[in-house]
Amino acid sequence: MSNLIKKLFGTLLQKPWEKDQMVLDTSHPGKTFDISLQKSAVIIIFGIATVLFSLIFTAYIYSIPPEQDTMYLLKPNLLWINTLILFFVTYFFSRIIKDLEKKETLKIKKNLIIVGALSYLFLFGQLIFWTQLMKSGNYVTTNTYFSSFYIFTAIHALHLLGGLFFWGKVSSRVFKLEQNKILDEEKNISALSWYWTFLLVVWLVFFLMIYTFNDTFIDWCKSLVA
Amino acid sequence: MSEEYNDNKTVHAQSSETISGGTSGVAPDIDYVRPAEIPEQDLYHGHSFITKWVFCQDAKVIGVQYFLLATFTGIIGLILSWLMRLQLGFPGAAGFMTAEHYYQFVTMHGMIMVVYFLTALFLGGFGNYLIPLMVGARDMVFPYLNMVSFWMFFIAVLVLLSSFFVPGGPTGAGWTLYPPQTILEGTPGSGAGILLMCLSLILFVAGFTMGGLNYLITVLQARTRGMTLMRMPLTVWGIFTATVLAMLAFPALLVGALMMSLDKVLGTSFFMPTILKAGEVLEYGGGSPILFQHLFWFFGHPEVYIVALPAFGIISDLISVHSRKNIFGYRMMVWAIVGIGGLSFFVWAHHMYVSGMNPWFGFFFATTTLIIAVPTAMKVYNWILTLWRGNIRMNTVMLWCLGFIVTFVNGGITGIFLGNVSVDVPLSDTYFVIAHFHMVMGIAPLMVIMGAVYHWFPLVAGKFLDEKLGKWHFWLTFLGAYSIYFPMHYLGFIGVPRRYFEMYDSPYMTSAVGMNEFISLAAFLVGAAQFILIYNIIRALKVGKPAGHNPWQACSLEWLTPKVPPEHGNWGDRLPVVHRWAYDYSVPGAKEDFITQTTAPSEVVDTGVEKT
User: Fold this and answer.
1) Residue of A170, B490, B503, B591 with fewest CB within 10 Å of its CB?
2) pLDDT the model gives residue B456
3) Mean pLDDT, chain B, as a whole number?
4) Half-sphere exposure of B38 (CA within 13 A, CB side)
């Protein structure tokens, strides 16, 4: 991070009209960061999605009703299992990346299938949790707290579905390739892996918020301030 | 789809050291250029009318498509403004117009002009056309996604305009779409109208994200050799920073539009408090209308700079080229663009001083608002200092530039008035606010667009626009715009409120009548004057004077393509290699008053170093 800041400010301080700088500049390769286009795209999507999810987080916190430990009361619930599944997805992606680094391609196809299957399982789990919530009488219109909960989980799921679309495209290419050519897809696969890790982080922040930002926690904070 | 065509239709550029002679041993080291490291881009070349001009992946064609569609929506916005001014200047003259129509026209005019005209035109139009050319790339990095981006915009426009034809018509809640009244009965277009508006905005944001991804990655990762960030023209800096802003600000609009749609369709209460209507309690409750205001303005204020920053960049380049001087304080101009971009996320609540916020909150946002004036003022000084002792060409482009500076300063100064809480509160919701933001983000960016059109038309079409018609266009627009907005400030001072269909029996009924009539007449004139440009373009395409290569004798890369207008792939067989920044004008010792970015140092050995 400090290197990035140094690089950024160093760049902004350059005087491109000076002769010494001109010589340096002309030998510039034209690329700012040494990462693939795919990873660059994923990083930018991180930025946009972070703002999007932050705003929904804000709406969620804003809407916690007084004297109601809503989701806290439902503990333990299916969300814990869904979270675990998302962890497993990231774990299998990390195994794929390690295999790619070692240039061992034997298990990549199998692990890609596991990643996709677990992701769909996560989405299925979220749907089940929605039905559980509705059965307990907590609908999207019940109050703004549940509205925020539903909208967050829906948008998170949409992001995952978007990821699965690209997972499908990359996987279909990988499955058509011979074993020794799979490494050609390294950039795409590692970009997907970054994306899933990001979705896990977003989910974890929200998951923690569900169980911490409740009246008990807020009262505890107030007692500290008092 | 592209793969099947790659074999025989890919442009195989071989960026070679022979361009510089760096490895031949003949040229000195100052010309050294490292071998190309970025692999050549595969391009899909259209082979039919549909793939060449409709579903085209060439960023230049997409840029022109954006430009034309944005202009089309802009003309609709203009016609709506005429109808509004007709009612305000001559109440009842348009017999069909009811108060509901008036509010719908106000709303659609505002949203169309800010989002679908200015944003789409600056980022989609100029961004697509200029970024790859100015950074020496063959195209955007994801051309297919870029094409989808335009078509999403197209669908967004269709959805928006379709709201004119649904029961109840388009939304009439004002362009800020403040809930709760936006989705409640009694507000025009509170049914299908507002839903279509929200859907259109969601589509616009989704489409723009695809385009923005392209602009950012092309600038960061796909520049040609030698093109460092600090060698980029300020136009690219402006569009790049504005895109970053848009990527971070548009999610707020997306969330706001989505939640409002859910409030309307599913009956959630994100923005809806408990409401009593005709003695009955509605089903809504627990939501916060202020939350929407925060979301809207978290998008809305950066939006001002999403429009302004590309305008700042473009005007800097136009002034430099047409005054034959390097831009004064290039680094400071870059810092100011980046600084304004960063600060623009900390000023949003100055639009909400009358929302009942904590006074300390107002104090904070007033302070940040005044701070943002500092880098903005620096830019104005630098434009003036670029002109100072320049070899100014007083052509149409320069007239638009000068018009912009004056207008922007005018609008900026009234912004300082409104940035202060104590001045803003009495002026809120008056015509002073209308005059301020039309000057600063309506007329000023429009002048940049016009200057840019006169400047880059010879590149796009290979023909010059007619200068005489251009000057008529400028003077009618400039004088007409001041005839509209100067008096409007005074209307605001005497307290005439905005968003009123008519003045009824208020004191403004007598004191403001003459001024309103005058403003309306001027508005009709300014609107009509814009059709001079359309005529000029059609005329130039038919009988315009051929422009040839680099007609303005500019330094930047977009003028240095092998063919004019540039073909798909931009650079023929070889990508350009950049040896200098984009502002080597009137360099001491040089034979001509410009040295292009591709000119190697060994070709201009006797030149001095410019001071900036």
Assistant:
1) B591
2) 98
3) 92
4) 28
- When pLDDT is cut at 50, 70 and 90, the band that residue B237 belongs to is very high
Q: Is A223 helix (H, G, I), strand (E, B) or coil?
A: helix
In 3-state terms, what secondary structure has residue B412? helix
Report the C-alpha gap between B313 and B241 in whole angstroms. Answer: 10
Please state whether the predicted TM-score (pTM) of the whole model is above 0.90: yes
Q: Out of A16, A19, A44, whose CB is closest to B217?
A: A44
Give the C-alpha separation, B369 to B374, whole Å: 10
CA B515, CA B442: separation in Å to the nearest integer? Answer: 21
Q: Would the CB atoms of A59 and B270 count as touching at under 8 Å?
A: yes
B131 in contact with chain A, both atoms CB, cutoff 8 A: no
User: A-contacting residues of B 212-231, CB under 8 Å?
Assistant: 212-213, 216-217, 220-231
Q: From the CA of B498, how many Å to the nearest CA of chain A? A: 31
Residue A149 domain-assigned? Answer: yes
H or E element at residue A221: helix A215-225
Residue A105: CATH number of its domain: 1.20.120.80
Burial class (CB in 10 A: 0-12, 13-18, 19+), A218: middle
The answer to whether B317 contacts chain A (CB < 8 Å) is no
Amino acid identity of residue B463, one-letter, is K
Whether residue A190 lies inside any domain: the answer is yes
Please enumerate, as own/partner, the contacts of B489-494 that have beta carbons within 8 Å and a separation of 24 or more.
Answer: B489/B414, B489/B431, B489/B432, B489/B435, B489/B436, B490/B515, B491/B430, B491/B431, B491/B432, B491/B435, B491/B515, B491/B516, B491/B519, B492/B427, B492/B430, B492/B431, B492/B432, B492/B433, B492/B434, B492/B435, B493/B427, B493/B430, B493/B432
Inter-chain touch A12–B230, beta carbons under 8 Å: yes
CA B120 to chain centre: 7
A26–B577: do the CB atoms touch at under 8 Å? yes
Nearest Cβ partner of B230 from A16, A19, A48? Answer: A16
Q: List CB contacts (< 8 A) between A47 and chain B.
A: 247-248
Q: Is A84 on the interface with B (CB under 8 A)?
A: no
Q: Which residue of B has its CA nearest to A18?
A: B609
Domain range holding A208? 38-60+73-225
Question: Does the N-terminal peptide bond of residue A76 adopt cis geometry, omega within 30 degrees of 0?
Answer: yes
Q: pLDDT tens, B425-436? A: 999 999 999 999
Tell me how many domains chain A contains: 1
Residue A99 sits at φ, ψ, to 5 deg, of -60, -40
Domains along chain B with CATH numbers: 46-273 (1.20.210.10), 318-329+341-547 (1.20.210.10)
For residue B263, give the nearest of B178, B183, B364, B200 by alpha carbon.
B183
Tell me the two tokens of residue B306: 């999403």
**Looking at this predicted complex, what is its ipTM?**
0.90
Within-domain flag for A214: yes
Please write down the long-range contacts of B54-59, taking CB distance under 8 Å and 24 or more positions apart. B55/B147, B55/B151, B56/B147, B57/B2, B57/B139, B57/B143, B57/B144, B57/B146, B57/B147, B58/B139, B58/B143, B58/B568, B59/B128, B59/B129, B59/B131, B59/B132, B59/B139, B59/B140, B59/B143, B59/B146, B59/B214
B:30-49 residues touching chain A, CB 8 A cutoff: 30-34, 36-38
| Shortest Cα distance, chain B CAs vs residue A46, angstroms | 11
Alpha-carbon distance B540 to nearest alpha carbon in chain A (angstroms): 37
Least confident of B85-89, B93-97, B162-166, B206-210: B93-97
Tell me which residue in B228, B254, B286 faces A144 most closely, judged by beta carbons: B286
Q: Around Cβ B237, how many Cβ atoms within 10 Å?
A: 26
* Domain assignment present for A193: yes
B460 close to B129: Cβ distance less than 8 angstroms: yes
Do residues A192 and A88 touch, judged by C-beta distance below 8 A?
no
Cβ contact B458:B550 at 8 Å = no
